[in-house]
Write a structure and sequence with these properties.
This protein is an all-alpha fold. It is built from 15 helices and no strands. Helix 8 (108-115) packs parallel to helix 10 (141-157), helix 13 (188-220) packs antiparallel against helix 14 and helix 14 (223-240) runs antiparallel to helix 15 (253-266).
Length: 268
């Protein structure tokens, strides 16, 4: 059970065999103030928090009895549980993440996962709000750039093309990925998982770009070019439909993405 701030101050003071009077003198407050803190009937002024932590030689996290490693484990478990039911029961996934945010308000990983349960344009106001918040508060570049991507998608869904383009302009131009380099330079198990993930991502990107280019050529009045791009796309998907599920993975690219795109192409 987590300690309250006053209990933590009392515990640290007793560990060092320091009286309330000595602590009060060093902090420039009365011993009655220290007594109120330790009885949890009053809280120290926020400006005193760094001084209290420095006096005891502890981090502010420890002063507030925050176990960052345990917090990270619990957040990871929540994200995994929410992701497992995201497709089959999005409402449950959303509720799990919102309950997590009550315990860990403003946690960037929980907010990032929450975005995947919200649909635009129906809930685009909240999506945009969360994205802008993440962009401002997160120190994790992966989350930050994912927020820009989702932000652009939300603006596009609302028909706000200029804002979507502006959000995408914030993304860095990268010609290689961490997964790609891990797959190319590492060996054995260190190579395997990144290679599997990068393979699926590359297949998805190739299929998406062929479809987009087909649409472009159709709009420009080049139906034969559009048809050829769709034909290549169909061949890629059919070729990948023959692959087996990689060890440790639930579905193949064809099962989770390719077959739906192929149906769409065949209906054109």
């Amino acid at each position: 059970m987590e300690m309250k701030l006053g209990e933590r101050i009392r515990s640290l003071r007793k560990e060092r065999n320091i009286s309330q009077e000595v602590l009060a003198q060093n902090l420039g407050v009365t011993f009655q103030a220290v007594s109120k803190w330790e009885n949890n009937s009053a809280l120290p002024d926020t400006a005193l928090i760094p001084s209290i932590a420095l006096f005891f030689g502890v981090s502010i996290d420890r002063l507030f009895d925050i176990n960052l490693l345990e917090t990270d484990k619990q957040v990871s478990a929540l994200c995994d549980e929410a992701a497992a039911c995201r497709e089959t029961d999005p409402a449950k996934s959303e509720n799990l993440l919102r309950e997590g945010l009550k315990k860990y308000p403003g946690n960037d990983r929980l907010l990032n996962n929450l975005l995947y349960t919200l649909r635009a344009p129906e809930r685009s106001d909240e999506v945009i709000s969360i994205c802008n918040s993440l962009i401002e508060i997160t120190r994790n570049d992966v989350i930050k750039y994912d927020a820009y991507r989702v932000l652009a998608e939300a603006y596009k869904a609302r028909g706000e093309y200029g804002l979507a383009k502006s959000a995408l302009d914030k993304l860095p131009e990268i010609y290689f990925t961490k997964l790609q380099m891990q797959a190319l330079l590492l060996e054995g198990e260190d190579m395997y998982a990144p290679a599997c993930e990068q393979k699926d991502l590359a297949a998805e990107m190739l299929v998406d770009m062929l479809v987009r280019l087909a649409g472009y050529y159709q709009e420009k009045g080049y139906p034969e070019k559009a048809k050829r791009h769709l034909s290549v796309c169909a061949k890629v998907i059919k070729a990948l439909s023959e692959e087996e599920t990689e060890e440790g993975r639930d579905r193949t690219f064809y099962e989770y993405y390719g077959k739906d795109v192929l149906k769409e192409i065949q209906c054109r």
